[in-house]
Design brief:
With about 425 residues, the chain is mostly beta strands. The chain has helices spanning about 80-85, 90-95, 260-265, 365-370, and strands at about 5-10, 20-25, 35-40, 45-50, 55, 65-70, 75, 100, 110-115, 120-130, 155, 170-175, 180-185, 190-195, 200-205, 220-225, 235-240, 250-255, 270-275, 285-290, 310-320, 325-330, 335-340, 380-385, 395-400, 405-410, 420-425. The strands form 7 sheets. It has a 5-stranded mixed beta sheet with strand order 1-24-23-22-21, with no helix packed on it. The radius of gyration is 21 Å and the shape is globular.
């Protein structure tokens, strides 16, 4: 059994458990339909705008206002696509079970501004589609790379879609003090600077990848550690937070890197977290966040035991000086952890060298301890298995106050009939600080 450095706040108040000190309130989400996904000779699928990939609360905004973002747009895994579309993989994906099918290939990743009222109804205030420097909307399509593993893309007629060097799979959002945005995305993986009006100014990619994106409709800079390019497919930068003064960025991978290979990613619990000086763009510290054992997510394990790579990190919010709230989940069960970087050991730069063996991802908890590496301590704030009325696939957190957060689920644009779910979570005491 893996030793994970955690503590639980299950007794915030004497004689009572945290589960009895939490109120979960359902918020009515705004209705945001998209054009139908039409598969000629197959099915027509109702789609909706899935705004729950990430959220951000700007303390300067009026009460109840939060910012959210979509991901790359509606897409189906080609493996098993017949279940949803009525048409087989051979027709829609040229038989490629690793590919994706995009029924709306022109979809533009979009930032939204919503207001969650005291009446527990959310209203859509603004949409900001992302644009390149030319003013043309970007897509959520993958690019073509010789150095990086990416999926092939097909449209609803089964025709191949050309790679888009400007395309982004947006998965996390932060708003900077000047009103601009910082977005993490999974294709590169990348950090993307976006002006307040949605124009992309700069995309920061792992060193060595910038040449493959020279045709993008914005500036591309190879400023991130090259090791990030070893992310597992669709397990890139899904967590970005910003210090209150905007001086530091915090970047957490969704999963352990595939370093040196996919087997390491599948077995590892060691996920990388960087603290980055925003002015220079250089990391000032790197830490290990150790994932919980997959079997500890009770609801997800009811039908069958979950594999370790089912665990993922889907949101992170800066709470205080080097203190972060992290969302760790599988699908049906979600845990919310507070971490403090001062409790972890900064790891040496040698672990950013792909030649280092064993890699950070290949090391067990005992190996880390032998090397003097302490993962950040995780303090459990809430486990969705302990409360009722929590949605599945929660991916977004907006911290409204020390006693309240709003969470959103990712509807996957309704491809399986889901809609965005929003919940207000109120604690009896100030745990979010």
């Amino acid at each position: 059994m893996r030793l994970v450095t955690t503590t639980a706040i299950l007794a915030l108040f004497a004689g009572s458990a945290l589960a009895n000190q939490v109120t979960v309130t359902e918020i009515k989400a705004p209705v945001m339909p998209l054009p139908d996904a039409v598969y000629a000779g197959g099915k027509t699928i109702k789609l909706n705008l899935g705004i729950g990939s990430a959220a951000w609360r700007d303390p300067k905004d009026p009460a109840g206002v939060i910012w959210t973002i979509t991901d790359r747009g509606p897409n189906f895994d080609c493996a098993g696509i017949e279940k949803f579309t009525g048409l087989g993989m051979d027709k829609l994906c040229a038989g490629d079970d690793k590919a994706k099918n995009f029924p709306l290939p022109g979809f533009t990743p979009t930032i939204t501004k919503i207001e969650v009222g005291a009446d527990n109804v959310a209203k859509l205030l603004e949409t900001i589609p992302l644009k390149g420097k030319s003013g043309k909307p970007i897509t959520g399509l993958p690019f073509t790379s010789g150095a990086l593993k990416l999926e092939a893309a097909f449209d609803s007629n089964g025709a191949p879609i050309a790679g888009d060097p400007s395309g982004l799979d947006t998965e996390t959002l932060a708003r900077l003090p000047d009103g601009s945005f910082l977005v993490g995305e999974e294709y590169g993986s990348s950090l993307v600077e976006i002006a307040a009006d949605g124009v992309i100014t700069t995309r920061h990619v792992p060193q060595g990848l910038e040449g493959e994106l020279k045709a993008a409709d914005y500036e591309v800079v190879g400023s991130l550690p090259a090791i990030i390019a070893k992310r597992a497919l669709n397990r890139g930068i899904e967590n970005v937070a910003v210090s209150a003064d905007g001086a530091f960025l915090f970047v957490l991978m969704q999963s352990p890197l595939a370093n040196p290979d996919n087997d390491a990613y599948k077995r590892s619990a060691n996920t990388r977290l960087w603290k980055i000086d925003r002015a220079s763009g250089k990391p000032v510290g790197q830490f290990v966040y150790a994932l919980d054992d997959a079997t500890s997510f009770r609801t997800d394990n009811k039908k069958e035991a979950q594999k370790q790579n089912a665990v993922r990190l889907s949101e992170m919010v800066a709470i205080g000086n080097d203190k972060l709230l992290v969302l760790e989940r599988i699908s049906k069960a979600t845990k919310f952890y507070m971490i403090d970087l001062s409790t972890g050991t900064p790891i040496e730069a040698s672990y950013d060298d792909a030649a280092t063996s064993p890699s950070l991802e290949q090391m067990s908890a005992a190996d880390l301890e032998a090397k003097g590496i302490k993962p950040v301590v995780k303090t459990l704030v809430l486990d969705s298995d302990d409360v009722e009325n929590m949605p599945k696939k929660i991916e977004a957190i907006a911290v409204m106050s020390p006693t309240e957060m709003i969470v959103l689920s990712d509807s996957d644009f309704g491809i399986e009939g889901d809609e965005t779910q929003i919940r207000r979570i109120t604690f009896a005491g100030p745990v979010l600080q």
